[in-house]
Amino acid sequence: MTTRRRFLAGSAAALTVAPLAGRAQAQAGAFAQVDAVISAQVAKLGGSGMIAVVKDRRLVHAAGFGGMDPKDRYRVFSLSKSITGLAVAKLAAEGKLDLDQPISRYVGAALQKYGPPADSRVPNVTVRQTMIHMGGFASNEREDDPVILGKDRFVPPKGRERDPRSWRKEDVLPSILKRQLDAPPGTQYIYSNAGYVILGLIVEAASGRSYEDYCREAVFKPAGLPLPTIEPDRRYVDSVSGWQMTPAEVMKMWAVYEPDDTRVLTPEMRQQVVAPTPAFINEQRRSYYTYGICFQEFRPGSFIWFHTGRNQFGPKDQQLVTFATHGPTISMVWAVRPALNFQGLTALDRDLWVALRAVTDWPAHDLYPQYGF
Length: 373
Hints:
Elements: H1 4-16, H2 23-28, H3 32-45, E1 48-55, E2 58-65, E3 74-75, H4 80-93, H5 104-113, H6 127-131, H7 169-177, H8 193-207, H9 211-223, E4 229-230, H10 238-241, E5 243-245, H11 247-254, H12 267-274, E6 287-289, E7 294-299, E8 302-311, E9 320-326, E10 330-337, H13 342-357
Helix pairs in contact: 1-13, 3-13, 4-8, 4-9, 7-8
């Protein structure tokens, strides 16, 4: 079985090795093979998809397939964690958040509201451990992931079962706190949506504002992205998977990690964000999880960063998988629906990078102005 860990590792390794009419067709030329790869996958799925490619910080290609338009915002799912990580970085830089303090320092009242957690170690898990998925919280690969709606998982509050717009992160806490930790805190990388629900509550407690408002002011505004939104029905997991963005916005947002980009991170903050952590995502110990995103040193002093977002639940039109990779000179984000399993994700991402690496006639244009930048 291909797990999230193997998929992310495989996609990082891949980096080292029928579009819509009109605008997309005019841009297709050099990217005909890239488009053919994703178009074939969309046809096989009977679904839709989109792709955006950046070269030397210029948006050189954007295309949609099967009815998706690259100017449309789509729910980026776990790419949202990178926004949460940047919010945490800003709060730490402002002196409002100490990453090495236990989570109970910031959300102690919320934890006490539901009584002692099933695992007595939970209050002492640190913010940093939570952020890099080493808090021991339940893996999202478990069928009973406490963040997912359903029996023996997240159960909405009584009287509000049919009103998802009223659900909030705190409503998810009971399903998280009734679980034992999957591992002792600080000992093992376990990718966990549950931890990022708690991290969203910590952002609110430390900032004194709603998660969305703080992210807009501290992350999106300085990045020059005023329009990303939280899906109204997903505010209860906004810090986990709630943001909606265009592919161009994803690429522009992720450029904030560049060494000379000071829109959001100062040089000192960036140094902390990209610093290796013990949260290695594969056995090769090259790729590691940091502030809501995966990093790998491409060559001395040069990094790539990447993340996947995926929803395989519910009706097919609600399922989606997206993957973004930012490299030293070439970056790409793609999405298809309905969702693929991890084996399918790995194969598609690999094939797209093979096709992209074969491009020799790179356009000189920059499409970012067409997308508001």
